[in-house]
Design goal:
- The complex is a heterodimer.
- By secondary structure, chain A is an alpha+beta fold.
- Chain A is 58% helix and 15% strand.
- In chain A, strands 3-2-1-6-5-4 form a six-stranded antiparallel sheet, with helices on both faces.
- In chain A, a hairpin with a 4-residue loop joins strand 5 and strand 6.
- By secondary structure, chain B is an alpha/beta fold.
- Chain B has six helices and eleven strands.
- In chain B, strands 3-2-4-1-5-6-7-9-8 form a nine-stranded mixed sheet, sandwiched between helices.
- In chain B, helix 2 packs parallel to helix 5.
- The longest helix of chain B has 18 residues.
- Classes of the chains: A alpha+beta, B alpha/beta.
- Strand 4 of chain A pairs antiparallel with strand 11 of chain B.
């Protein structure tokens, strides 16, 4: 027998497990489409999105299109330096036309990717809750119009990407999100404080649940006979495990 | 108990005479001809300022504001010389110095390190500026985080009432941007003109002023320079012009300064604008 858990923690765990199974499909693909569309629109060499790590200390590139894309994806850089770092910290967009003029920054990038851009246009990804990361466009075509127009245009892509990221984050930590929302709506100060405390320690979704949710999603894409087969296999599996538990005397 | 008695100050026998600050016709000649920015304290709230950069020359004072989980206020202040973490603060200081060469520059470093507690660090930096009697504060940074709306509003209002002029870059991302969207600050976006004294006025807020901020040659790290664009380079142009005007007319209040800028904007039609 597992020790009885308080209802709030149980609710948080349930929500966490459920959240991943609702995760909108194709979130990564959507971000990939956004970077590729931005790259083409700006006639740029590359476009990438980097997100802040949980502790806010680093930026991790999660998607990239164009030159150096493979090298940069999953690369991490300290959030406390460089042009991208300034952008997430200040919440302001910036464009630099001669990146090589910032030797410290250029060296870091070159070392990691083997590709040093001439120009960078970088913009924060931000929601009303927090700063998520940065979107960068490297080496836009030189004939393009004034940089401030391009900045406004990139703002539209940034807003789209921030929404996609934020919604998937909510599904990934639905337990925490629900408790925070409940705390926000509560008029009882003590209850709100309790819920916030629970939210800060809310469990992440259990690893296997996320995997099972992903498998179900994949099954949903298959043909009807395949789905019927899957149902039969799962029923058999559950019957087998139930028998085994009873055999163990539980 | 003291009840606020705001009407008292308008009693006939108590009413103070207020010296006139604005001329019948506001001209650039009146506003800043012969002015250098001398005596005006200008703070750059950013990533630090490299005082040894030739574009900056020197700073009068500097403080680092950092997140400190062990302190009751969650921040700590380290006064004394410091460098620039990113290069941006030095760029802003260089722009202000080029317009108001004799102003007293102060660096308030709030960017760098981790993002933890950023909003509180930023707010503490602004409070430091108020407590240390800055006249002009340049902020090339903003947040869209709803949690900070009230906090920054309170500080921006306090600054307004003390005639501390907050000059803020608005951001390009759709959505809220604090404190740059408040009525109490000078909110600035970039335009393509290169003349440092060319600025425009927008009568449809939140963004009120446009100043150079596209493909500018600015000071950066390691005594270097680079070509950069952004609203964050437009704000220090307005901060410099405000400092210049304030050094010649130190009695101007924040709303009078906005009136001066609106009157002198380059997009004023010729009939309205003199000088």
């Amino acid at each position: 027998m597992s020790p009885r858990r308080d209802p709030v923690t149980t609710l948080a765990q349930l929500a966490a497990d459920l959240g991943v199974s609702f995760l909108p499909a194709g979130h990564r693909e959507l971000l990939g489409t956004i970077t590729e569309a931005a790259r083409r629109l700006f006639e740029a060499q590359a476009c990438s999105i980097a997100l802040l790590t949980e502790d806010g200390a680093e930026l991790e590139f999660i998607t990239a299109a164009g030159a150096g894309a493979d090298a940069v994806t999953e690369m991490r850089i300290p959030a406390g330096q460089g042009i991208a770092g300034w952008v997430v910290m200040s919440g302001q967009a910036i464009a630099v036309d001669d990146v090589a003029a910032d030797p410290r920054f250029a060296a870091t990038v070159a070392e990691a990717t083997g590709y040093v851009p001439r120009s960078i246009l970088a913009m924060p990804l931000e929601t009303s809750r927090r700063v998520l990361g940065v979107i960068e466009v490297l080496d836009r075509a030189e004939h393009r119009a004034a940089t401030n127009r391009d900045m406004e245009l990139l703002g539209v892509f940034a807003a789209q990407a921030a929404l996609a990221i934020e919604s998937s984050t909510v599904f990934n930590s639905l337990g925490r999100f629900l408790l925070e929302a409940w705390a926000g709506a509560s008029k009882d100060e003590d209850l709100a404080a309790l819920l916030r405390r629970h939210a800060s320690t809310a469990p992440p979704p259990r690893k296997h649940m996320a995997e099972i949710a992903a498998l179900f999603y994949e099954l949903g894409q298959s043909s009807a006979p395949e789905r019927r087969l899957a149902v039969r296999v799962l029923r058999e599996l559950l019957a087998y495990t139930r028998d085994r538990r009873e055999g163990d005397g539980e | 108990m003291n009840l606020p008695a705001w009407s008292e100050q308008f009693d006939r026998d108590r009413l103070r005479a207020v010296p006139s600050t604005l001329p019948p016709v506001i001209t650039r000649e009146w506003a800043w001809a012969g002015a250098t920015g001398a005596g005006v304290r200008v703070a750059v709230v950013d990533s630090g300022v490299d005082a040894s950069h030739p574009a900056v020359g020197h700073v009068e004072g500097a403080v680092i504001v950092e997140h400190d989980p062990d302190s009751p206020s969650h921040v700590r202040f380290v006064e004394g010389e410091h460098g620039d973490v990113f290069g941006h603060g030095t760029a802003c200081a260089g722009i202000i110095r080029s317009i108001a060469p004799e102003c007293e520059l102060f660096s308030i470093r709030v960017l760098g390190g981790r993002l933890t507690g950023k909003g509180h660090v930023f707010a503490a930096g602004l409070r430091w500026a108020l407590e240390h009697e800055m006249n002009v504060v340049n902020m090339s940074l903003s947040t869209g985080k709803q949690d900070y709306f009230g906090l920054f509003h309170e500080i921006a209002d306090a600054a307004y009432f003390r005639n501390v002029m907050l000059v803020c870059a608005i951001n390009n991302v759709p959505g809220p941007s604090y404190p740059s969207e408040y009525a109490s600050v000078f909110s600035v976006a970039a335009h393509v003109d290169k003349d440092p004294l060319h600025f425009d006025y927008n009568p449809e807020p939140p963004v009120e002023f446009g100043a150079p901020g596209v493909s500018l040659d600015v000071a950066w790290l390691d005594q270097g320079r680079l070509t950069a664009s952004g609203n964050s380079f437009a704000a220090p142009h307005i901060a410099g012009i405000v400092a210049l005007t304030l050094s010649k007319h130190p009695r101007l209040t924040t709303f009078e300064m906005k009136t001066v800028l609106a009157a002198l904007a380059d997009n004023r039609t010729a009939n309205d604008r003199a000088g």
